[in-house]
Amino acid sequence: MSDSLNASDVPRPADPAHGEPGEFSAHAPGVSVRHTRAKGEPRFPDGPKADPAGSHFERRIRSFQPRRSRVTAGQADALQRLWARWGLDIDGRETIDLAGLFGNTGRVVLEIGFGMGEATARMAAADPATNILAVDVHTPGQGNLLNLAEQKGLSNIRVGNGDAIILLREMLRPDSLDGLRVYFPDPWPKKRHHKRRLIQPEFLDLVAARVRPGGIVHCATDWEPYAEKMLEVLGAHPAFENTQADGGFAPRPDFRPLTRFEGQGLEKGHVVNDLLFRRVQHRNQPSTGA
Prior knowledge:
Mean pLDDT: 83
Distance between the termini: 42 Å
Structural class: alpha/beta
Strand content: 15-25%
Helix content: 25-40%
Low-confidence stretches: 1-30, 286-290
Largest sheet: 8 strands, mixed
Oligomer: single chain
Order of helices and strands: HEHEHEHEHEHEHEHE
């Protein structure tokens, strides 16, 4: 798994889901960890693996670009101490028992791409009955979210490291999820990169097999062309129905936090679009009225 990112080749919009300092900040600014490792030595011996799935699965076009950045002392400490308890390496080798992973039989929502984890922590704190399996490949963010979970006593968060496609395809049982959250994914704005966008028909086929009927797929983006494409792709998929009667975008629901960065973008005229689609009943399955 590459840890490089060519920032000039992949422009990014404002990313409100990726956090900000403040109430849920868990690391000291400017305190970073640099360690010279011997060849082959893991970055965090007791933490997330660099490439958990390795070469066991086909190399496909990925919707994400792993990137390496400085890890603060607090994040490194959290990765070392808490990964064995609250972390999950996505290696594709076993089916996950979600009740065992969380220690309860509550509802489970998968969040793909949580950045630094501040928004995830706020949602977990506001709804302790919902378990959040939060997946990302950004090591500082993984450490930060673990730190936040410990500081705030959030036992309903588990942090996944690796490719969410492998998690969905190889490690989750059918109808095991109660929802999916994809907030501010990489828009891959250049036309030649559109094939890398996460919200594609094939991805939704996989999601439909893992989210139980009635579950909500919630996407949000501040990249308007991508928002329109998301609306088109989700609207065309037979397994999902728009929760909005007019078939359009949804108001931001109260449970998705409005971050400072998102608020600043809105003040500058940026448009943030939310999409809320419900997983419909399986074919030939009678409605339960839910």
